Amino acid sequence: YSNMTSKKSRIRHLAKTITWRIIASLTTFALALFFFQGQADVVQKATGIAVAESVLKMGLYYFHERIWYRYGKLGRN
């Protein structure tokens, strides 16, 4: 791969990471609202959980994508 292709790939992986995180974090937030319903600080708890898992999982997902891109041969010719 050329340097330009590699850079585009990294940008694409980062964009996929961010958009997936938005979907996944909203799901986590909704679940936390459900589990903490009735508590006075339900929104604060749900937000804290969504933010913490978002930061951690975004990093893990990005590196997972990069490892698959570099070493994953499944489905490639």
Set down the secondary structure blueprint.
Layout: H1 3-35, H2 42-71
Helix pairs in contact: 1-2
Structural notes for this entry:
This protein has 77 residues and is mainly α. The chain has helices spanning 3-35, 42-71.
Condensed summary:
The protein has two helices and no strands. The chain has 77 residues and is mainly alpha-helical.
Largest sheet: number of strands, sense, barrel closure:
none
Q: How much helical structure, as a percent, in the residues?
A: over 70%
User: Which structural category fits the helices and strands?
Assistant: mainly alpha
Radius of gyration: 17 Å
Q: How far apart are the termini?
A: 15 Å
Task: Enumerate the spans where pLDDT stays under 50 for 5 or more consecutive residues.
Answer: none
Number of alpha- plus pi-helical segments = 2
**Beta-strand proportion:** under 5%
Overall outline: elongated
Secondary structure tally: strands = 0
Mean pLDDT: 87
Order of helices and strands: HH
Summary tags:
2 helices; mainly alpha; 77 residues; 0% strand
